[in-house]
Amino acid sequence: MKTTFILLMLASLSFPASLQAQFTLDQVLGAPYTESLKGSKDGKYLAWVVNEKGVRNIWYTSLDASTPTPLTSYDADDGLGIDIQAVTPQHLFYVRGNGNNRNGEPANPASLSPVPQPQLLRLRLSDKHIDTLAAVGAMELSPDGTAMVYTKGKSIYRMLGAGNSEAKEELLLEVRSGASSLTWSPDGTKIAFVSPRTDHSFVGVFVLGTDRIQWISPGLGFDEHPVWSPDGKRLAFLRRPGRSKDELRNLTGGNSFEIWVGALETGSALPIWKSPADDGGFAQYYPNAPLRWTQQDQLLFYSEHEGWNHIYKIRPDGTGLTDLTPGACITENSSISPDQKYLYTSGNCGDINRRHIWRTEITSGATERVTGPAGIQSHVVGLEGNAFAYREGLYNQPTTAVLQRNGTPKNLGGLATQFPGNSLVEPQAVTFRAADGVEIHGQLFTPPQGTKNKKPALIYMHGGPIRQMLLGYHYSGYYANAYSMNQYMASRGYVVLSVNYRSGIGYGRDFRRAANQGPRGASEYQDIVAAGKYLQSLEIVNPEKIGLWGGSYGGYLTAMGLARNSELFKAGVDLHGVHDWAWRGRDFSPGGGWGLTEGLMEGATAASPIADLSAWTSPVLLISGDDDRNVMIGQSIDLKNQLDARGIYNEYLIFPDEVHGFLRYDSWLRAFQATEGFFDRYLK
After folding, report:
1. Smallest Cα–Cα separation from 380: which of 330, 342, 323?
2. Number of structural domains the chain divides into
3. End-to-end CA distance of the chain
4. Residue 445: which CATH number?
5. Dihedrals φ, ψ of 480, to 5°?
6. Domain boundary among 394, 418, 442
7. Is residue 69 located within the same domain as residue 158?
8. DSSP conformation class of 467
9. Could you report the per-residue pLDDT of 323-351, keeping only the tens digit for each?
């Protein structure tokens, strides 16, 4: 009788049309998403990877084709990545598979047997025939396309006949400490590379047909990112200081760096420019090409010495330093047109909440924005005839590939027929201030109107922390999934606030390197408290029903909120978060990636959720994969055990063999279904 009564009551209610049109999580999360783009060297061809519900395939077009062509037909949500290595008029080279963990095991989130190893594959464009060339994760094609080089262990191998059926592998040279950053000279007769050591590295050159390495001006620093001059007679590289005794890597720090230029004839090199302070680090590991040598005999490099990550040009003699991407904005990935005339960049210049594409004439420095004002455009590829391609996501459309010619963009991808683009809300840019006065940016998702009742609210925190959430689908698949989830929760009646807390990117070097962050004081946590109070100030929000969710660093901040302010944050979903900085500093890697020496461990513990468990009363859902390479699953195990000992309610969802940024669609879907159910029980 009770069930019948409830059903009759529900039948008598009149629901607003906006709520009747709710979409499913599978509809919004499972749309095709373009993961990467790769152009041919001549700029006439383009290929890209599309991920649809965990099934990754390669698409291809020439600039003159009317429609794009699918090249592969994989059909399983197996978690195997695809990385396009090179596109030629006849072939496409790509790697399928995943990298190794610290035990030398490739990621295998579908628990397949035998364990899939990364494979370098060659696809013939004329008939889509695929050959397996080698069990390696990356390669570099020679300028004429007839050979390739790659590393196995500490050796460099060459494969001749890369474009025909007689491809043959040969050992090229052995390097005592291994090799990376393999780079062919313009004439294809030499290979430059970096030989990494623990506390320094060298740039070496191997001339084909010889029997020894030529080291270029070896020193006591880390020499990295070698690039050839157009004539192949000189080499430039970046040098940063070598590692001092007991010095540990610190993600939030910086370093000085220099640009060196050397002559192959003598093997000697000299510095032509030095950063004023510790303006390197982020400027070298974050962009796709930290150093270039153009046909106009200009060196292009990234630096933050003026407070923002920009690209500068300088002559090889050290004169003519010019900022090519000026302004209070960040420049991210970049590309040069095949004719070497234009530099294409993506960044938030003129629109701090999005990403757009800019084109700069390298010789004159004249710059114009060539995409926008709506949407998120990134990862530009310069093509022939002033054409270019990029990835674009809108607030109501997941990221697709776009080709732009003569000012006209052409979307190369399609959306799933069930994608609910018309039902998504347009997030609004908001700002508020933390207790110490720092201005914080966020994106506010408000649910469709239809009831006057105050609504539960969620705060989402990105990971990294070197990330920035935007007013649309993100160019990172991990955060595109999070954006879909925020949209879905808004459609289910939640007010959602995505917070760009201090230590993230997009707001300048000083914001990213804010004092006392993370294990040195958790200064960014006050931004989360400020976000909670901002939500409480909104008339639409129920101030007693605010939850937290986030992954990685966002998981850390979720646990911090529950541990320190359960009276404000009534429930949380913590995906693979750090809960004990001191443990990470001792056991994850030397210093944990944050430069945590023994003298900092006491403060690191105090800045951790485990330091405040006595005040933790709110329920939490812990989600993690057990092959996590970024945050040990032990962090979640230990937190659960400590919560259990104190009688604090917790739930968990674990994915065997899954990694940090879940590789399978099934993992994302199940994680978000569990998240929705958890918040519905505790906040609705």
Report:
1. 342
2. 4
3. 25
4. 3.40.50.1820
5. -65, -40
6. 418
7. yes
8. -
9. 999 999 999 999 999 999 999 999 999 99
Residue whose entry in the numeric block shows the structure tokens 């195997």: 80
Q: What CATH number did the domain enclosing 121 receive?
A: 2.130.10.120
Distance, in Å, from the CA atom of 544 to the CA atom of 289, rounded to the nearest integer, reads: 48
Report the SS3 class of residue 8. helix
Distance CA 282, CA 661 (A): 21
Three-state SS at 667: helix
- Residue 496 and residue 408 share a domain: no
**Structure tokens belonging to residue 610:** 């485990």
- Establish if 315 belongs to a structural domain: no
Instruction: Tokens 């962090």: give the residue.
Output: 635
Residue 335 resides in a domain:
yes
Q: What CATH number is given to the structural domain containing 229?
A: 2.120.10.30
| DSSP assignment string, 153-206 | TTEEEEEE-TTSTT-EEEEEEE-TT--EEEEE-TTSSEEEEEEE-SS-EEEEEE
Last residue of a domain, which of 418, 450, 485?
418
pLDDT tens digits, one per residue of 416-465? 668 999 999 999 999 999 999 999 999 999 998 766 789 999 999 999 99
How far apart, in whole angstroms, are the C-alpha atoms of residue 64 and residue 298?
A: 32
Do residues 385 and 410 both lie within one domain? Answer: yes
Residue 191 shares a structural domain with residue 278: yes
Measured distance CA(181)–CA(202) in Å, rounded: 11
* pLDDT per residue as tens digits for the range 208-263: 999 999 999 999 999 999 999 999 999 999 999 999 999 999 999 999 999 999 99
Question: Nearest Cα to 640, choosing from 667, 611, 620, 657?
Answer: 620
**Distance, CA of 164 to CA of 389 (rounded, Å):** 29
Q: Write out 619-630 in H/E/C secondary structure.
A: CEEEEEECCCCC
Range of the domain at 219: 175-293
Identify the three-state secondary structure at position 612. helix
Q: What are phi and psi of 670, to 5 degrees?
A: -65, -40
Confirm if 576 and 551 have CB atoms less than 8 A apart: yes
Question: Do residue 196 and residue 289 come from a single domain?
Answer: yes
308, part of any domain: no
User: What sign for the dihedral angle of Cα 266, 271, 273, 277?
Assistant: positive
298 domain residue, yes or no: no
Q: Where are the beta strands (DSSP E) in 337-479?
A: 342-347, 356-361, 367-369, 376-382, 388-394, 397-405, 408-411, 428-433, 439-445, 455-461
Pair 398, 330 in one domain = yes
Neighbouring C-beta atoms of residue 405, cutoff 10 Å: 15
Residues 481 and 592 both lie in one domain: yes
Tokens in use for 581? 């900085």
Q: pTM score > 0.90 for this model?
A: yes
Same domain, 53 and 153: yes
